[in-house]
Design brief:
With 218 residues, the protein is α+β, with helices and mostly antiparallel strands. It is 26% helix and 24% strand. It has one domain: Glutaredoxin.
Length: 218
């Protein structure tokens, strides 16, 4: 896809997401909107598609599914150092990994605020992670401006290797599919939802409930 087409896609994505009605203000002052919660899950992997306003976008990479272990891949921290996704600071604990296309779009912004502000104390027991293709500089600026200090931001900007490793890379527009996964203490993916429509938000409350079940069972 050309740079012009990518720019048009980003503009259209931002516009289409930004028209939803308001639904209250969060702890940080963020104004939540009534976004559509994704129903069901798409399938990761090469040849699979998700939709953007009903139009298919092709996924690339090796499919991941629940029951499999996290795969080794380097992502970039906000200080520009590399870390293996399997060895973040919360390794050995339950982790929620929220995957967004870009923090510059309203749905991604709300998904990340939801992760940070509405987890009802989970952040004291587990690691909350956001992965996007935004640069580490943009992620750090976003976290500071949004007053989010309880989420680990990891960037896939170097080449989309995280997305490709997990079958969540949208190659035509060079962004990640929207998803949320819950990983147990042994690095096994126990819950995975990939939003079938890119403008819908994953069911973050369902991910929170699943994470609590894992904590209780441990």
């Amino acid at each position: 896809m050309s740079i012009i087409h990518r720019g048009f896609f980003a503009s259209a994505l931002s516009l289409s997401i930004g028209l939803a009605g308001c639904a209250g203000m969060g702890e940080s002052g963020f104004l939540y909107k009534n976004l559509t919660v994704a129903d069901g899950s798409a399938t990761a992997g090469e040849g699979q598609t998700i939709l953007f306003q009903g139009n298919p976008l092709m996924l690339a990479g090796t499919a991941i599914k629940t029951g499999e272990s996290l795969r080794d891949v380097q992502v970039t921290q906000t200080d520009l150092s590399l870390v293996n996704i399997t060895q973040t600071k919360g390794t050995g604990k339950v982790r929620i990994i929220s995957i967004v296309p870009s923090l510059d779009t309203p749905v991604c912004e709300q998904q990340t605020h939801h992760l940070s502000e509405k987890n009802k104390g989970l952040d004291k027991m587990i690691e909350l992670i956001t992965v996007s293709v935004d640069t580490p500089f943009a992620q750090k600026r976003f976290a500071e401006e949004a007053k989010i200090g309880n989420v680990t931001f990891l960037s896939d900007y170097r080449g989309g290797e995280f997305g490709k490793t997990y079958g969540l890379f949208l190659k035509d527009v060079h962004i990640l599919a929207r998803a949320v996964m819950v990983v147990d203490q042994h690095n096994t993916i126990r819950y995975l939802q990939i939003a079938p429509e890119l403008t819908d938000i994953p069911d973050m409350e369902a991910a929170f409930r699943f994470a609590r079940l894992l904590i209780t069972a441990s």
